[in-house]
Amino acid sequence: MLKILCDWIVFSLFKMDAGSRIGVAINFFIYDSLKILFLLFIMIAIIGFLRSFIALEKAEKWLSGKKYLANIIASIFGAVTPFCSCSSIPIFLSFVRTNIPLGVTFSFLITSPLINEYLVILMLGSFGFKITLAYVFSGLLIGVFSGIIIGKMHLEKYIEKDIISPNDTAEAYEIKINGLFSRMKFGLNEAVDIVKKLWLWVLVGVGIGALIHNYIPQEAILSVINKTGPFSVPIATAIGVPIYGSCAAIVPIAVVLFKKGVPLGTALAFMMATSALSFPEAIILRRAMKIHLIIMFFLITAISICFTGYFLNYLQPLLVLN
Questions:
Q1: 3-state secondary structure at position 289
Q2: Each residue's pLDDT tens digit, 53-76
Q3: 159 φ, ψ to 5°?
Q4: What is the C-alpha separation between 158 and 47, in angstroms, rounded?
Q5: Looking at the domain assignment, is residue 11 inside a domain?
Q6: C-beta atoms surrounding 182 within 10 Å
Q7: Whole domain around residue 161: which residue ranges?
């Protein structure tokens, strides 16, 4: 319904050419901005409501005590949520506000856009079962190990303080949250609070993503990757980071790269980087954390993707064997 409304506004109301790059870019910007802001509000309101039932001290103690198991659980939860890199941020912020360990929250943030049911279905049809299974397993490992590394670096000081509410304590919950209406009000207030802080960053991030998404031709990507030899995996990863798009657009590009002779791991590394990391995501996250943490997040995830790409290239004879 939202997509139909955006199409009507851009192509019917403003009479822009549906085949022009500028028309498609504006449509992309309006649709993704509204989608992300809507998700941001709804998801934070729901999670705020649900977490009002949970004693923060107990949740923090449980997740902190589980060590690596908590990262695995967060990655699996990320895998079953159908979000892109920007749309995963609302849940990530809610986790941060709940004082869940930072490394665990990043395991979710990394895995959520890497793996979702839409992407898996598209991959099954394009790459087959073995390659899809290898991709899913690799995505989970990237989320788990990247989150563990970030957690061990103790980077909590780089979270912007005003993103975490001063009322996020177990004592505050006990005092002011009692009854269904109070819990609903708490979730709505939390959603309003975060959206007010992030809406401008969302618009800027999606605007940059719209330009990149519609003005970088596939032929240029293929040309660069094909000419880089043993460095094709890090090059493909670096090219994938700025590009912002849905899995429906990413998988066909990866298929084209693979069919044109690009090694499997290189093509999948490009797809992973495009899914898990993007400039719009970095811009939105900048409102919630300092640049040091964003750089470490992108660097650690990109390195993990590169290692995975080289490993999948090594396994390619087994994965493509009929």
A1: strand
A2: 665 555 556 656 667 888 898 888
A3: -80, 130
A4: 23
A5: no
A6: 11
A7: 23-319
Residue 254 resides in a domain: yes
Q: Report pLDDT for 195.
A: 75
**Interval 5-29: pLDDT, tens:** 666 666 666 667 666 767 777 777 7
Task: Write down how long the chain is.
Answer: 322
Residue 7 located in a structural domain: no
d(CA 73, CA 68) in angstroms, rounded, equals 9
Most confident of 75-79, 205-209, 256-260, 292-296: 292-296
Please state the pTM of the whole predicted model: 0.70
pLDDT at 294 over 50: yes
Q: What is the DSSP string of 222-258?
A: HHHHHT-GGGHHHHHHHHHTT----HHHHHHHHHHHH
DSSP string, 4-37: HHHHIIIIIIS---TTSHHHHHHHHHHHHHHHHH
Distance of alpha carbon 303 from alpha carbon 39, whole angstroms: 30
**Could you tell me if residue 15 is inside a domain?**
no
Q: Are 26 and 20 a contacting pair, CB within 8 Å?
A: no
Nearest one of 146, 167, 165 to 308, comparing CA atoms = 146
Taking every pair of Cα atoms in the chain, the longest distance, rounded to a whole number of angstroms, is: 63
pLDDT digits (tens, 9 = 90+) for 152-185: 998 888 887 766 554 544 444 444 556 778 878 8
Contacts made by residues 120-128, CB under 8 angstroms, sequence distance 24+: 122/247, 122/248, 122/251, 123/251, 126/251, 126/252, 126/254, 126/255, 127/255, 127/258
| Domains: count for the chain | 1
The answer to whether 183 touches 18, Cβ cutoff 8 Å, is: no
Tokens of 52: 């009002």
Beta bridge partner(s), residue 289:
159
